[in-house]
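To illustrate this point, what follows is a protein record of this kind.

___
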Amino acid sequence: MSDLKLNFRYDINALRGIAVLAVLFFHFEMLGFNGGYIGVDIFFVISGFLITQIILTKIDATSFNLKEFYISRAKRILPALAAVIITSTFVGYFFLTPYDYKGLSEQSQSAMSFISNVFFADEGSYFEPKSHEKWLLHTWSLSVEAQFYLIWPCLLMFLKQRAPNFLKPSVIIIFAMSLLWSIIQTHLDETQAFFSLTSRIWEFVAGGLIYLYADRIRSFKGMAEIGLFTIFLTVFLYTREMIFPGFWAIFPILGAVLFISAKSTYFSKSRMLQFFGNISYSLYLWHWPLVVGVKYLDVERTFLVVSLLFIVSVLLAVFSYRFIETPMRKNLSWKWSASVGLGTLILPILIVANDGIPKRVPDDVRIAEQARKDINPRLSECIFDKKVELPECHLGKEGTPTIAVWGDSHADSLFPVIDKTLKEQHKTAVFHALSACAPVLGDLKVAEAKNEKSFSSCQHFKESVMKEITDDLLIEDVILIGRWSKYFDKVSPVQDYAQTDVEKEYKQNIVNTVCRLSNSDKNVFIVKPMPEMKHHVPRYLAKMLMLERAPSVISSSMDSYRAKNRVVLEAFARAKTECNAKILDPTRYLCDEGSCFGVKNNFPVYRDNHHLTVTGSFLLSQLFSDPFLME
């Protein structure tokens, strides 16, 4: 690097402090900071401004070197990140089950490869409850930033050298296209939009535009305060339920742009903000594994616990900043940087290759964890997921089907017991199932789907199955199985309608579906919903055994079961009366004395918190063989 120095912006450092505190308080679930996640967006604007300034200033001074730029970024990012990953891996060796240890290592691989945004986009929403099980979820933003660093200098160099007159217009076009795409993609697939560089790059470019148009921006009195007020407003008013990024990301970005453009000197006087600005990167890295660790240990988040989390996070960040981040950024050679990165990447690769090193844990932990894999061996063959045509999948003895089993992944979890029972009865059934698609037909009139693409695919599948069953004159009996009440997580009331209207419509659709089958001369059997557990049963049991704790009773109450499934149980009662449906009740075999058990004979009944294991499904053998136990 050349000796060219850029003036240190204390106001930007203060903004870093504000951004990291917003993220921390959001992750600590502190009251009033529901929108603290926008702190990451503030970081993106800051990075866009500083990186654009560094690149273009050095290009103008003919001192920009692409290789040295990448080395400086690696020296800035890698040491502290590697320290967090190595520490997490070391601690995890003693406390994590093989499955969780392998999961941590897979996350470490993606983080060190700077593709964790892609990895976590396929794992589910950033805001869902199980995000607290992902040790390195926060590294998604580092991956987005690294990907930006990879392409942005090349683009600026090309435009500056080959088309200097088109530099600013091109950057504006990139900004506008990315913002437009962010709005569109957020409505099409919010999770992908949240983690994607293409829907985030406009936030970096917004920072770059501040530098490009610095000579035209005229600050005014109160500009910094308005920017800061806008940021605080989004921190306090935004929620995790909002559709984000898209349109709603504009306001925190606008606030950051106003604040940076104002070049305020007031905030340089705040020693606290300068302190948190200095340690912001290390603080961001260290705090999240601590949050996940508290969740993993089932520690209740009291004020005292949150206070300790904050203190420990700050102490680790100060140590990291002073003894890892700063000295290594200044003194570490590019060869050592590469060695650190490569070494930290190889370690998790070896752990993943060894399946989380199961030999290091007691036998009872391994046995409990094996329940995750206790699934229908014909799952990939028989479930419709990712298939184009309905598969020819039969249960029971070989022959012509007289029974149709229709449902979602809960139908698949009961596949083994139904298959076994039908073989004993010398009967044959055809199987139709699609994950997250309960067997209920009907158009949406008072509700709208939260994921239109997924909902539409489900509807198309159900229409195909209904036609297949009603057209087949040899089918006499139809068994309907589903995670029936999950429907309410997939839809929301349209304007001028309430949740009660959605419930009424769904009940009617259930009855209509059953009666349509009944009117086609089919005997319809409806399996009531499976009881659901609070915990992922194999994970929780294995974790408790790993931590040498006596596992608490893993169960759920019948009262919660009835409350959760009130709407569908009312619909089933109507279907029984109006459509002559028979009701099969799994709670007779999965519950006793007012509670439903997640473990029986020291083995998990569930492979997660709602799908039965193969072993668990066999508890329902009598349900499918004894017609006198039907309601």
About this structure: The radius of gyration is 28 Å. The chain has a mean pLDDT of 93. The longest helix spans residues 66-95. The CA atoms of residues 38 and 211 lie 22 Å apart.
